[in-house]
Design a protein that fits this description.
Elements (H helix, E strand, L loop, with lengths): L8 E4 L4 E5 L5 E4 L15 H24 L7 E10 L5 E10 L5 H14 L1 H6 L4 E7 L2
Parallel strand pairs: 5-6
Antiparallel strand pairs: 1-2, 2-3, 4-5
Length: 140
């Protein structure tokens, strides 16, 4: 792979700590979500950060596919939901659901576009074979 961009981030204190990117743009406290034993859901957590990154990246991949396909659509949006759970071996795993809204096309065409985007998105390529990723679409 020819690296086009690279950024680092440092965490201190794990899920009940602080994260900061190398350039200081991301600089925030993280806390354990309530469902995993935290006090509340008032802070970002790793799954939230992953969902935001995946949604943004996937929407960019989707729009690249739409542009390459020379298809006219309305403004797209992608919602990523990330789940965490315990695996049979005692470790923990993730699951993802990506929902793309692609106005101005049929549901069948929207499904084709989301599947093509799933083939080129870096997050999808990084997680393929490692976590279950469910793809759904709408066109309103």
């Amino acid at each position: 792979m020819k690296t086009l961009y690279s950024i680092g981030a440092t965490a201190q204190g794990g899920r009940n700590g602080h994260v900061k990117s190398d350039n200081g743009v991301l600089d925030l406290d993280v806390r354990m979500p309530k469902n995993l034993g935290g006090a509340n859901n008032d802070f970002p957590n790793p799954e939230m950060l992953f969902a935001a990154g995946y949604a943004a990246c996937f929407d960019s991949a989707l729009n690249m596919i739409i542009k390459q396909s020379k298809i006219e659509t309305g403004e797209t949006s992608v919602t990523a939901k990330i789940g965490i759970g315990q695996l049979e071996n005692g470790g923990f795993g993730l699951e993802a659901e990506l929902h793309a809204n692609i106005p101005g096309v049929s549901i069948e065409q929207a499904q084709e576009l989301i599947e093509k985007a799933h083939e080129v998105c870096p997050y999808s390529n990084a997680t393929r074979g490692n976590i279950e990723v469910k793809l759904t679409v709408s066109n309103d």
